[in-house]
Amino acid sequence: MLKSNSTPVRAVAIWNGLLMRFPALIFLLALCCGLGSGCSEGVTRPTAATVLSVKGTVVFGMAEQNNFQPVTRESRIHDGDIVRTSDGALLSLGLIPAALAQMSSNSEIKIEELRISKDGNQTEGGMRSRSARIRLNRGKITVLFTRRDRIGSFFALRTPSVTITADSDCLFCAQSDGTTTRLTCVRGNVHTSSSAQPSAAIGAGYFQQWPSGRAEPMAASYDAAAQRLEIGNQLRELQSGWQKRRPF
User: Fold this and answer.
1) Distances 112 to 30, 77, 135, 137, 199 between C-alpha atoms, Å
2) What are phi and psi of 224, to 5 degrees?
3) Is the peptide bond prior to 211 cis by the omega test (within 30 degrees of 0)?
4) Rounded CA gap, 174 and 94, in Å?
5) Are strands 206-210 and 181-193 parallel, antiparallel or unpaired?
6) What's the predicted TM-score (pTM) here?
7) 132 falls in which pLDDT band (50, 70, 90)?
8) pLDDT at 116
């Protein structure tokens, strides 16, 4: 019996000796194990769009509650919010660091989803992905999508006719009257999917309309592309200042 009990007694003695001689080492091991288990899975949470500039009368709110209020530089626009610009108004939004949008006058969008994913317990860094999904109900919106880091970023714009997605650098403009949609790509490539037409990639200098009898995109005019490019330069200036003060 004494022989059989000697092994656990010896193990306890060794462990107690380690605790006394290397307390810092034991603490670090326990801490690393705790951090490893806490950060093994990403945490996804909603975020909000940031107002970069506003001109004229622009309102936002939940359509179901009919509680629209004026958009200011301090406004934080969240999932489910409707944003409306009046005649002559303009609004520039930072949706995620990779995606900026400028709404033209007499336009309406709905923020469907703004998400970021980070490592579990990290408060700084640890970013895994960012995504933005909005719906263009009517009017015109210009989007600049630019990835300046290796973090996965995704943007999707839905209209009644087509879904437009971006996962690489691009600049495009979409217009919709609620029935038809026109997409003009100025830089890069955007991907489209529609129930009425096959999925396609539209490159710089081309446009497509839905619904349409043409399966292939058409060349855009130089003047139209130049106007979009000017807006894109303005968005890049806003983006540069915005990313310097964003926490993520």
Assistant:
1) 42, 11, 7, 12, 22
2) -65, -40
3) yes
4) 17
5) antiparallel
6) 0.73
7) very high
8) 84
